[in-house]
Amino acid sequence: MSTRPVGQGLATTLTFVAGLLAVFIGERILGVGTGRGLLSGAGVAAVVLAMGWRFFASRGASAERRTVDGWVLGLYGLGLLALGLYFLQSDLGTSLFDARLSMKSPRLAVVLAALYPALLTCCLAPLVLVETAVQAMARAPVLETGRARSALYSGLGLSFVVIFAFATVYVVTQANTTWDLSYYRTAKPGDSTRKVVRGLNEPLQVTLFFPPSNEVGEAVRQYFRDLSTESPQLLNVEWLDQAVEPTRARLLGVHNNGTVVLARGERREPLTVGLELDRSRGQLQRLDQEVQRRLMTVAKPRRVVYFTSGHGERADTRPVPGETPKPAVAQLKEVLRSQNVDVRSLGVSEGLGQEIPADAAALVVLGATRDFLPEETTAVREYLKRGGRLLMALEPEGPRFEKLLEPLGLKYLGTPLANDQVYFRTTRQQSDRGNLGSVGFSSHPSVTSLTALGGQAAVALIGAGAMDQLQPLPNGIMHDISVRAHGATFADANGNFTYDPGETRRTWPLVVAVEEPAAAGKSPMRAIVMADADAMSDVVLTNLGNEYLVLDSLRWLTGEEAVSGGVSSEEDVPIQHTREQDVAWFYATVFLAPALVLAVGFVTTRRRGRRAPRAPVAAGGER
User: Fold this and answer.
1) Cα dihedral angle (336, 339, 341, 345), rounded to 10 degrees?
2) Which pLDDT score is estimated for 180?
3) How far, in Å, CA of 563 to CA of 303, rounded?
């Protein structure tokens, strides 16, 4: 049996690789001309020659050598197949099919364009490792096929990893999807913002003024790229450099980069974000909130909401005087203004005793401590009969408003509600039991965002009064108890914040949505009645649940419930501890943690001491 030199196999592989390289130079570097054809033809000939040389040379070799040569010939075959697939989707394929394959069968052309480099990878990587392993055994008396097989499998595994990596990068690039796993992240478009864009009926232009390759600009661009998928035909996003396009910037009122402008017709709303990432993090974390505010201003018509005055209602900036001063509602009105709402006062001097203005999108009665005059009550009732929208937030120590609530099928008892099991602690006194919290929401549109959160955001009511439904309801009136109290809530008749015999525990209505179907040619009457005015005060409106309750209630009242939903925010929420929790953490870190470490060390050393081998005892002697 002949023994072919190991170097001969290496020569055939080098010839094979040289042929592939010649084809690459001819097709990819030269590209045109006679030189391309000659070099590519020579390369293919070298590949075929190498295969034939290896095949005939292995016939007289040892069994181990023939086994390895068979694997190498299989790899050569993969390389030759890859060349064939390449030529099918190249100019040669055009001459065979009378047209470019990408025109006749674009899907097949894409498959071949991805398949031939994958086959080349599966050919070359194992080939290099197998030949390296064989050369390492050049002086061995017997060729170890197991070692060559391991090299073959390693090369194939490496090829598969490379192909998978390239395929993943390609798919992700085409799908235009990113994963942000960093601690600091830019806010994503929230449900409410997406719904506003989805409801556009006219084009809206968004212009981003940032220099090229700016980190802040890329983050903002990604946000609007995600948002534009909701309405790609109507939401147009453009990136400009203010230094390069000063005329366009001047027309939009922009003088520096780092600014976003939302424009629709003549209405423009700028948003300054900044250029430096460290300084712009706060703006980027609140980006969805800021964009939604400007979207509502540009894309939605301005609405007018009237707040009644002259009856001890909540003030804008200072607490309402009394035995217990009532919190102001400045933040509530600021939230409404951010939703493109024009907030106005309506008292007797502004015509409350005559007629509710025709431009009123809604009327708000917020924490009145004195009853309406008969003329004012009549004006509000007439407004509701015309399909008006009313939001009433009542106070236990305020009037009962029987003349307004009875037509709505409601009765305000005014008895303070308390709960001795579930409540918000603020002063650590028994009076905290009057601070109700609820996650009992219905599926009504006025609590869409709260329902979507699945009980993760509670509504806080500080000092709510008992409210009940009239039975039977007036004709045509429909109720939905959108927020219910916890089942352990009771009407605290004597005000001692303790459940006494005779007091009733039940899921009291806290917020009721009232609707009357529209008559012919009229809008449906809608009203929301809350058992507590503090639910919309500055004290609790920072609570996410209360803010969503206010926003969704307003949207339902004004007929815009289609844009209800949450906004996205990446702002860090501060961790707040009670005094008892701080004390517990102090003792746990100062005493408990070191004690645990010492205990573990003591147990470990004791166990090692018990397992230690004893010294051997000499025969007939002592240890």
Assistant:
1) 0
2) 56
3) 15
Q: Which two tokens stand for residue 97?
A: 């099919």
The three-state (H, E, C) secondary structure of 52-86, written as one string: HHHHHHHHHCCHHHHHHHHHHHHHHHHHHHHHHHH
For residue 1, what pLDDT is reported? 41
Partnered with residue 556 across adjacent β-strands are none
Helix (H) or strand (E) holding 121: helix 106-136
**Interacting residues of 253 by C-beta distance below 8 A, sequence separation 6+:** 261, 268, 270
Strand pairing of 259-264 and 204-209?
antiparallel
Low-confidence ranges of the chain (pLDDT < 50): 1-2, 573, 623
C-alpha distances in Å from residue 270, one per residue of 206, 232, 274: 10, 21, 12
Q: Are 467 and 457 in contact (CB under 8 A)?
A: no
H helix intervals, 229-286: 246-251, 277-285
Cα separation, 149 vs 144, in Å, equals: 9
Half-sphere exposure of 21 (CA within 13 A, CB side): 6
What's the pLDDT score for residue 584? 75
Alpha helix ranges (H) inside 25-62: 34-57
By three-state DSSP, how is residue 230 classified? Answer: coil
Which of 243, 233, 228, 236 lies closest to 205, judged by CA?
236
Give the pLDDT of residue 98: 65
Environment class of 363 (CB within 10 Å of its CB; exposed 0-12, middle 13-18, buried 19+): buried
pLDDT at 2: 43
Three-state DSSP string of 511-523: EEEEEECCCCCCC
Residue 435: which of 447, 423, 448 has the closest Cα?
A: 423
